[in-house]
Amino acid sequence: MVSLFTGLATGFPLFYRLIYIILLTTIVSYWWVWISIKQINIVEISSKTISEVGGDFNQKLILSNSTLLPKTGIEISTHSTLPNYPDSPKKFVATNLNGLENYKVTIKLPTKTRGVFSVGPSEISVSDPFGIFKMRKTIGSTKKLLVYPKIHNLSNFSLNISKFEGDYKINKQTPVITPQVGSIRKYSFGDSLNRIHWKSTAKIGRLMSKEFELGQTNNLWVLLDLAENSQAGLGSESTDEYIVSIGASLANQSIKSKIPVGLIAYGDKKIVIPPNITNNQLDLILLKLIETKATGATPISLVLENEPSIINTNNSVIIITTKITIDLLKKIDFLISKHLKISIIFVEKQSFSNEEKKPDSNQQDLTLNTTMFKISKGDDISKSLKSPYQNPNKF
Between these two residues, 192 and 75, which has the higher pLDDT value? Predict the structure, then answer.
């Protein structure tokens, strides 16, 4: 505009020529971007929509230039609801395409937090060589991404399960649904659908129901401390993810060892999964864990008090927490008096924050009457859980 007014005011031809050059550059730049975005073909390669904490979700695309003209200033990005962290890589890739060239692009999205997220669609943008114009094109669709807790190999961890002399089993009928089916009987009014034995129903021609037994009582309960004031750290290096990862790993190892395992966690929602050993028990536990957040308000000592179902003489309990308080130790002593086997996995909260470790006069005099394992930030969880902490009364 300055060249136009100057040219009109002075009549000097140089300014008119400058106007023509600017107009021609603008038109050519716009045409370049418009034709470039039309001539780039994009194919989205299907990727697994399951990841785990500490891994990556890889969005793969193939770009192809269908003409001899090179394409410059190409940026490819993928939209997602995955949280950003200071050390996260950029969520876009910049490149150029030569004539008739194919180019494979992989956009890595770090999965540092468990949960259910959306990924996609992807977006490609092309700019002209002068950076005047930019056009965008959206490809693909939105996909659901499940980020599971990291599962560690705990084959060397002693589950500390209560044992009996011989292969003891309680053949007592119970109104509660358990993994053990003792017998089949005629359907009674009020029986729920999950009590019906469909194979017998089809064979006999009338509704038949299952009778359940207590079965083996050496069950394992895993309790997770998901209270908000118990947490520290960020992303995969947070007490939240360590606690959940250890809990999921214990459940995995328990099921591998044919031990019925249940899980209790009070986060933003209450999770109580009764002990079971069926094939889908681990899937159920993992799905519940990725849906809950560590924003609970109930201390782990109160969780023990609120869940009397764990008080069975032959149950074993593993508590994963960042806080060992007098109230918690009192609850543990009570459970021990009921002949439950108790273990604590202590996740050291201070190692996940920048705070200096300060001695706690209240905790120095605590006496721990059970087995304890200690985990700090950066520890190899598989190795740390091989043997108990040697000085359990100092934490």
Answer: 75
- pLDDT, tens digit, 9 for 90 and up, residues 125-138: 888 888 888 899 88
pLDDT at res. 2:
52
Place of tokens 């721990």: 368
Q: Which residues contact 142 (CB under 8 A, 6 or more apart)?
A: 79, 118, 119, 120, 121
- Percent of the chain having pLDDT more than 70? 81
**Domain locations in the chain as residue ranges:** 39-148, 170-215, 220-384
Residue 261, pLDDT above cutoff 80: yes
Helix, strand, coil percent values for the chain (each to nearest 5): 30, 35, 40
pLDDT tens-digit map of 288-304: 999 999 999 999 999 99
Query: How long a stretch of residues is the chain?
Result: 395
Instruction: Count the neighbouring beta carbons within 10 Å of the beta carbon of residue 192.
Output: 8
Contact residues for 286 (Cβ-Cβ < 8 A; gap 6+) = 148, 149, 248
Q: Distance between CA atoms of 341 and 109, rounded to whole angstroms?
A: 42
Q: What are phi and psi of 174, to 5 degrees?
A: -145, 145
Distance CA 251, CA 271 (A): 14
Rounded Cα distance between 214 and 168, Å, is: 12
C-alpha to C-alpha distance for 67 and 69, rounded to whole angstroms: 5
| Domain 39-148 fold | Immunoglobulin-like (2.60.40)
Strand partners for 212: 174, 181
Q: Is 220-384 in CATH node 3.40.50.720? A: no
Please give the pLDDT value at position 87. Answer: 55
Question: Which segments within 160-279 are labelled E, that is strand?
Answer: 170-174, 180-186, 208-215, 220-224, 233-234, 237-238, 261-266, 270-276
